[in-house]
Amino acid sequence: MSQFPYQFQSYQFASPQAGPRLLISGAVHGDETCGTQAIRRIIQEFDSGQLLLKRGLVTFVPVANAKAYAQQSRFGDRNLNRCLQPTTEVQEFEDAVANWLCPLMAQHEILLDLHSFRDAGQAFAMMGPEDNQGTIEPFTQAREEEDFALCLGVQRYVDGWLGTYSRWLSTHGKSDQWKFGVGTTEYMRSVGGRALTLECGSHLDPHAPEVAYRAIRNALHHYDLLDFAQATDLAAARAQAEMLSLYHVVDRLHENDEFSRDWRSFDALKAGDQIGTRADGSAVLAEIDGYIVFPDTHAQVGTEWFYLARRTERLQRKA
Questions:
Q1: pLDDT digits over 193-207, tens only?
Q2: Where are the coiled-coil regions (predicted)?
Q3: Per the structure, how many domains does the chain have?
Q4: CB–CB of 200/114 below 8 Å?
Q5: CATH of the domain at 166
Q6: Distances (CA, A) of 158 to 19, 102, 124, 208
Q7: Closest listed residue to residue 56, CA positions, set 88, 16, 26
Q8: Where are the alpha helices (DSSP H) in 110-155?
Q9: Which end of the chain is more exposed for a tag (fewer CB within 10 A), N or C?
Q10: How far apart, in Å, do the first and last CA atoms of the chain sit?
Q11: What is the pTM of this model?
């Protein structure tokens, strides 16, 4: 029997007319199934003739991580959305996934990766950086990626992931390990594409599959891949957007470090608000107005306890 008794599946629809090459993926984390449900619904609509590709190519990956999906767990052997890159040393199942998924991404121009999150909350899109020539995540397609994000049907957008993660690593003397923060979207940008992660709602939210389905349809319309037009008013979407940027990570330093309340991602903070208490009794306070993101009550000592984000005018100033 194979070391990994699973198989990879993708579904591709191609038009005789040239056009954009779009990849849509689900279940990078196996317990995040809203994208899988939405993708299978769209595939059925193409198969039945309800949808017809006008131009270009679209590839669907309903389940990126088959082992994690079969286990109904976040990981198979490890987090697929960290240190994502092809490898000649296949030791864990996610290594095999990377060797299949990364070349598939490189064959496309655009990626929409569908996820969900643990706690209750509204859907949001994770975006890449603004255009830059830096060493961590150089990019030249920020405006195109912003327009893509604005078409998805959500109102909250977040950037700053890889830069913030890299700065956190540098405080631990690991600045050369920033590639550990590379997931699907970061890899897609590294091979010349544009990419978005859409967090469609909580794992158990019955509306999350509809958020994912609507986003797929909107993406197909945005890139003019379907026979009928349905343009998004991008100016209106920009005006309504809530743009946040991650800027800082706070570590859990001791097992007795505790939050002051049951925080959820995007809970608002005012300068001086107490976020938690260290084991020695000292308070952890918000230095500026902002938001807490990805709070982890069960964080291991020496790892990320929570992220901080602040509101920016990135989308509005581009209008």
A1: 999 999 999 999 999
A2: none
A3: 2
A4: yes
A5: 3.40.630.10
A6: 29, 24, 7, 18
A7: 16
A8: 142-150
A9: N
A10: 56
A11: 0.94
